[in-house]
Design goal:
Chains A, B: Keywords: 4Fe-4S, Iron, Iron-sulfur, Lyase, Metal-binding, S-adenosyl-L-methionine, Thiamine biosynthesis, Zinc. Chains A, B: It catalyses: 5-amino-1-(5-phospho-beta-D-ribosyl)imidazole + S-adenosyl-L-methionine = 4-amino-2-methyl-5-(phosphooxymethyl)pyrimidine + CO + 5'-deoxyadenosine + formate + L-methionine + 3 H(+). Chains A, B: Its EC number is 4.1.99.17. The structure is a homodimer. By secondary structure, chain A is of the alpha/beta class. Chain A folds into 2 domains: 297 residues, TIM Barrel (Alpha-Beta Barrel), CATH 3.20.20.540; 67 residues, no CATH class. Chain A has 19 helices and 10 strands. Chain A has an 8-stranded parallel beta barrel, surrounded by 7 helices. A two-stranded antiparallel ribbon of chain A has the order 1-2. In chain A, strand 7, helix 12 and strand 8 form a beta-alpha-beta unit. The termini of chain A are far apart. At the A-B interface, helix 9, helix 14, helix 15, helix 16 and helix 17 of A face helix 9, helix 14, helix 15, helix 16 and helix 17 of B.
Chain lengths: 431, 431
């Protein structure tokens, strides 16, 4: 029984209890939301080390970290360092996008010790692992790789099943500035063009769902036609595929498979809320997992910031799960420092959204920070900070002359000035 | 005649023509907006090196860089390096917040060579320069410093005139998590408590306006009661002062002085749009100049990112002018690297907002980036980037095996894959 099967049968699973506790909700509420698909709990039956989390409506916004080797940089020890950083800064999810070399060994290592949920894109691995020309890979080959990942204990998989012939026809008719920028999407498109066949993940969707169902793998419906520049945002190609994803969402639920739906991409600020509402409507309230959105195209080197802007607004508008973006986006495979910058920026966006959404207890940390600042208790400030390391290093690099202040304001510190003025007032008051 | 005097007299000034040209608007439109106060063109008659810009409705969002020495770090050569970085990355405004040592010499140096508009907070300088105890400074002293700055050629000055006794009473009755965090605001508050007098900038507001009018200094009405934590956002204290600022806005316009109004502060995402609408209503459409807003309190070390999120949303909602925030905020006086990070993050926020607001030609740069990415022209990408240096360094640090790609995707580069597939299609087509 998958989580959604259990929920529909009226059973509150251990995973639902853990989610309820950590989200300050009742287990019964979580069960109801899992039953109707508004919350997914990606939890492969074979992922023993998992601390389950929920993704969806009314829950804290979750953060995913992408990592994994590419043909150009296949340094597994480096990838293991990235895993440690991701976990240290509180990522709830790690996607292993490795696509060459000993991917199975790294995936097993990761699943064995990751309390964070683990996601993959089996298509990448299929192409790297099978060592065939793209057009020679069969639909059966693709499904075999999905099955291998499911057996390994992967909690959710990105599957680009929505790039159907219908969606491709919309794409070809639309006329875009930047065509297809989804790696998986581009490969499915090329495969369809070369073989003349329908999208294999769509053609064999029921077989695929049966594999996922067996291990309770959540399907993360990939958006092959996500916009790669703000000019392509929310265009007919993107929305045509989103319509397909909504149809596929229902089919997955009908077969007892949990669903998340992936979203854009590059989207200007004024279109983000509409994108979230459209996804929630067309995909029947399924959890929305967004990459970015990047609110401008012109900031390579700083796309963790453009994504933090877009991600915060998307999550505040109802997106449930943010894929991190690092400063290396569009430029190179991220290194460990890029991963740290990316996960912190994305945690900031997620938290800002949770404050806006009024997620229970989200404001507790901010209240602790304000209390620490009111009394200029620097250690308490660093302790509650999203990253305790960098602010302490900054503060200590520049010692103030007056204890309790910092070198930004020194003897003009507003908090100190007002505390002193209020103390004098108190001293003068009649009681 | 100030810009607003001229505009009301039907005169299109040279400054209005420059603004109209750079904003793709008609000079007559700019004149009308200056006349009714919706656009300010801070341009002191003594600032000969200025390239005038407009701040206000329908214009590109402008960015300010704060710098200047404090008692703890009085390194003027370092401040001059910050000026160069601010100008290099396109800041339209520099505020010199120096408050000790030879402030006049630095201010003169800055005004002599800055094409960006220059702002100050005369109160800081008064306290550093006069070398009196706070309570011994007289209202006349304050006005004399304002006059000195005006003569030097400062284009706009932050004046905390809205912290009236009425506003203080609201503040004392409100009960706040973090009291007053505005440096100038805290000093005015302490002065009022110590002397028992009304706010000197309010008491002598007409005299102050006469000084500003003489040199066409734009008044930037400071928000002494801006929230210092998300829990204090949009509270009675803040809004009581905003009501005062609206009243003061009209009085300044009536005396022929241009106005900007300063705004919060720490504000959760879901309250930002309301803050902007409220300011625009209560202050009669005056340009809105925001610091941040910071959308969470718990990210010291990364407040350039929390501010970029809030600033982008504020500007997309109608704020006109963003004060940058650096990673050093709340921790230390920023160094040159912090300044660079801060100005770039804020330029990203401003640009993202301009795309959302539909500012004329804002999307041109993004279109050039998309065109460069479509053909994998890396040099063209770096050229159009907000920061051309960092993305090139990133890209070159990690050379891809396949020309044209980067190490993020290598041989799985989506753009390359789709370009090849579409070329094959073209080759097969009957013509």
């Amino acid at each position: 029984m998958t989580q959604i099967d259990s929920a529909r049968a009226g059973v509150v699973t251990d995973q639902m209890k853990v989610v309820a506790l950590s989200e300050h909700l009742s287990p019964e509420h979580v069960r109801q939301q899992v039953a109707c698909g508004r919350i997914a709990i990606p939890a492969n039956v074979n992922h023993a080390s998992l601390s389950p989390v929920g993704v969806g409506e009314g829950l804290r916004t979750k953060v995913n970290v992408n990592l994994g080797v590419s043909a150009d940089r296949a340094d597994f020890p480096e990838e293991r360092r990235k895993v440690r950083i991701a976990l240290e800064y509180g990522a709830e999810s790690i996607m292993d996008l490795s696509n060459c070399g000993k991917t199975h060994a790294f995936r097993s290592w990761l699943i064995e010790r990751s309390p964070a949920m683990v996601g993959t894109v089996p298509l990448y691995d299929a192409i790297g692992y099978l060592e065939k020309g793209l057009a020679d890979i069969t639909a059966d080959d693709f499904l075999r790789v999905v099955e291998a990942h499911a057996r390994d204990g992967v909690d959710f998989m990105t599957i680009h099943a929505g790039l159907t012939r219908r969606a491709v026809a919309s794409f070809m008719a639309t006329g875009r500035s930047l065509n297809i920028v989804s790696r998986g999407g581009s490969l499915v498109f090329a495969w369809m063009q070369e073989t003349g066949n329908e999208n294999p993940f769509y053609e064999r969707y029921d077989d695929l769902l049966d594999i996922l169902h067996e291990h309770d793998v959540t399907i993360s419906l990939g958006d092959a036609l996500r916009p790669g520049c703000v000019d392509d945002a929310t265009d007919a190609a993107q929305i045509s595929e989103l319509i397909e994803l909504g149809i596929l969402t229902k089919r997955a639920w009908d077969r007892g498979v949990q669903v998340m739906v992936e979203g854009p991409g590059h989207v200007p600020l004024n279109q983000i809320e509409a994108n979230v509402r459209l996804q929630k409507r067309l995909c029947h309230g399924a959890p929305f997992y967004v990459l970015g959105p990047l609110v401008t195209d012109i900031a390579p080197g700083y796309d963790h910031i453009t994504a933090a802007i877009g991600g915060a607004v998307a999550a505040a508008s109802g997106a449930d799960f943010l894929c991190y973006v690092t400063p290396a986006e569009h430029l190179r495979l991220p290194d460990v420092d890029d991963v740290r910058e990316g996960v912190i920026a994305t945690k900031i966006a997620a938290h800002a959204a949770d404050l806006a959404k009024g997620v229970p207890h989200a404001a507790d940390a901010d209240a602790r920070m304000a209390a620490a600042r009111r009394v200029l208790d620097w250690d308490a400030m660093f302790e509650v900070a999203i990253d305790p390391v960098k602010p302490r290093a900054y503060f200590e690099s520049s010692p103030p002359a007056i204890e309790g202040t910092c070198t930004m304001c020194g003897d003009m510190c507003a908090v100190r000035t007002v505390n002193q003025a209020l103390e004098k007032l108190d001293a003068c008051s009649p009681d």
